[in-house]
Amino acid sequence: MSLDLARFHKTFFEESFENLETMEQALLRLDIAAFDAEVINTIFRAAHSIKGGAATFGFAAVASFTHHAETLLDQMRSGARALAQIDIELLLRAGDTMRSLLMAARDATEIDAAQVAQVQGDLETALSVKPAALALAVAPAAPIAKAGGWQVAFAPKPDLFRSGNDPLRIIRAVSELGDMTSVAHIPDAVSLHAAEPETCYLSWVLDVEGDVTREAIQDCFAWVEDESDLRIDAHPAAASPAAVVEAPASTTLAAPATKPEAAIANKQPEVPVQARGAKPANDGASIRVGTEKIDALINLVGELVITQAMLTQVAGALDPVQNEKLFSGLSQLDRNTRMLQEAVMATRMLPMEAVFSRFPRLVRDLATKLGKQVRLVTVGEQTELDKSVIEKITDPLNHLVRNSLDHGLEKPGDRTASGKDGTGTITLKAAHQGGHIVIEVCDDGRGLDRQKILSKAAEKGIVCSETMSDSDVYQLIFAPGFSTADQVTDVSGRGVGMDVVKKNIQALGGSVELSSTPGRGATVLIRLPLTLAILDGMSVGVGDDVFIFPLSSVVESLQPLPDQIKRVAQAGIVVRVRNEYLPLVDLREWFGLPGQMRPSHEAIVVIVESEGRKVAVQIDELVGQQQVVIKSLEANYRRVRGVSGATILGDGRVSLILDVAALVRVFSQSAAA
Predict the structure, then answer these.
(1) What is the distance of C-alpha 224 from the center of its chain?
(2) C-alpha–C-alpha distance, residues 582 and 276, integer Å
(3) Superfamily of domain 350-529
(4) Is 258 helix (H, G, I), strand (E, B) or coil?
(5) Taking Cα atoms as reference points, which of 547, 552, 512 lies closest to residue 529?
(6) Where are the domains of the chain?
(7) Does domain 534-672 have CATH number 2.40.50.180?
(8) Cβ–Cβ < 8 Å for 351, 430
(9) d(CA 585, CA 24)
């Protein structure tokens, strides 16, 4: 029977790209002054897994190239080659090439053969030069059982074949290390008629002789360590494998002691020894699920939220005394719906580490290019954010980090002259605040130059004045085409980027703020919603229409007195709230709704805030607070100014979700003018 391996390709590529990330992060942690065997072994295992998988699935180009990188790593981990910065740089380049090869194999596209040949040639050149051995005092060699070798008990888990793994290929790899004999076992309890072809029933005991290290044997099993039980014991040369070695505990492979070789599996070890890095079977089991399935589940939960709101609205017209059981059931439904929604949304949440892990390599490469010394500090990597938001925030963060490196941090000599550490620091922080996540990009560089920003803005015809607050001046940086760079480089200075950063963040329903201390650094603060699917909102009525304010943007609501309403030349109508004058927006007028406009002192005013600025919005009534499912208005209709999306109310009507950030920008600018 031939096994169709193509259906495992998606999993192979996903795991290979994860292994590449592991390799890169570990390579960036390597310190040539301090040998760390575990870090090098981590890199080697990742490369070995990629090579083994590529060979199994027929991606010969990937396997062949990776073999050279693996050989270089093997020399490092064995102590035959001293750690050198040039080798680390070469392995980072090799990782980039492996990524390109994997993408070409996945997408069936052509690869730049010259680039691959160049890096492979550099690897071969490095391998052809006799490496300087690492001092044994720094990295003692792993123990070698020269007299008797090793006995290996290998018991695959039942679903090993389903993942496309081939245990015989692994055993052949062990046989290449030294002289080997093996004994295979299949339990008597397995009926060949009832056996499933994709289930592994076999276990093996291997006897390996020669100058072989335990780690060399373990590495042959590294890429199936989560799908098998493994035990490796040193044994005297005269001992028999079947008489000494105990097979790993495995309920699937337990066998009656009717055959001589079954004695291996008949006696269970007290504490099963797992392959390095393997997790216990009951510890944090996980499965891969396509995002399209999770999105479909979220959409269904959204429909459930709408249905629950509809039932609640219908029940509102009933007598709660006569329908006590119904109201009790609706209350329980409300609690369960919210719990279900939170549980489903949690499946889309990923730690910020998924984003932050991209930056050590970027900072390293760019700092070298710019001739600067930089340390990267990350805080709050385990803070979780919706996957859809994470995917869209990566590019803005990438630009902000590059800006900090290029514009913010000074050269080492300049920093030392000003009394600073010659090595600059860029800090990435993430934390939850209420219903938002706050991300900060901080540097301890020269800071923002207020006068330079104002001068550049005036040159470009951007409205500005010396009386503007620092925060408003810093916001000028986000104007299209704005740049304070003295010269254009391939890193920055063309005036494209910061405006795109702000637009992308606002498209996610977020905001961005800047603060700075001259000579001490700058901070960019990004505030984002935790998810783009469901939000807590405040429903307000204007005539027969209902609008939704994101609850996180609402500061307060009030009914102003006549003397609180003022008309200011050019700025229009403002309302005074505790000695602060705020622009007043009449929603009826803004959307051109029918009906008689009410005097402001007879209406209700909702104070909303975004980007540190506030506006007052005039409405007719407060309807209530509720969870709403966000539907894209642009995808189903078109973009509407001041609207970020729509939702379906319990009675089936469509309600617009207001874009508070857009309202604040429009009316704050009008008031400033």
Answers:
(1) 25
(2) 63
(3) Histidine kinase-like ATPase, C-terminal domain (3.30.565.10)
(4) coil
(5) 552
(6) 5-128, 150-266, 292-345, 350-529, 534-672
(7) yes
(8) no
(9) 52
Dist CA 518 CA 528 (whole Å): 27
**Reduced to 3 states, what is the DSSP secondary structure of residue 539?**
strand
pLDDT digits (tens, 9 = 90+) for 254-304: 333 333 333 323 333 332 333 333 333 344 456 777 777 887 888 888 788
- Interhelix angle 85-107/9-29, rounded to 10 degrees, is 160
> Residues, the chain, total?
673
* Residue bearing tokens 């995808």: 635
Residues of the chain with pLDDT > 70: what percent? 82
Q: With contact defined as beta carbons under 8 Å apart, do 21 and 357 qualify?
A: yes
Question: Using one digit for the tens of pLDDT, what is the confidence trace for 521-538?
Answer: 999 999 887 766 677 889
Identify residue 232 by its one-letter amino acid code: I
Query: How is residue 645 written in tokens?
Result: 């999306």
**What type of residue sits at position 545?**
D
652: left (phi over 0), alpha (psi -120 to 50) or beta: left
CA trace torsion 101, 103, 109, 110 (10° rounding): -30
- How far apart CA 468 and CA 371 sit, in angstroms, is 36
CB-CB contact of 102 with 61 (8 Å): no
Residue 623 structure tokens: 């309807």
Count of alpha carbons within 13 Å of 450, Cβ hemisphere only?
14
- Answer yes or no: are the C-beta atoms of 348 and 289 closer than 8 Å: no
Contact present, 148 and 92 (Cβ < 8 Å): no
Please report, as a single letter, which amino acid is at residue 521. Answer: G
Question: Whole-angstrom Cα distance, residue 478 to residue 469?
Answer: 16
Residues paired with residue 385 on neighbouring β-strands, in sequence order: 350
Q: Which fold is adopted by the domain 5-128?
A: Four Helix Bundle (Hemerythrin (Met), subunit A) (1.20.120)
- Edge to edge, the sheet with strand 150-156 lists 179-185, 203-209, 150-156, 228-234
Q: Which residues of 377-412 are buried (b: 16+ CB within 10 A; e: fewer)?
A: ebebeebbbbbbbbebbeebbbbbbbbbbbbbbbeb
Q: In 347-423, which ranges are continuous DSSP H helix?
A: 353-356, 359-370, 387-403, 412-417
Whole-number Å distance between alpha carbons of 202 and 27: 37
Residue 562, exposed/middle/buried by CB under 10 A (0-12, 13-18, 19+)? exposed
Flag residues of the chain having pLDDT under 50: 1-2, 133-147, 237-284, 493-496
Q: Two tokens at 131?
A: 């490496």
- What's the DSSP call for residue 256? -
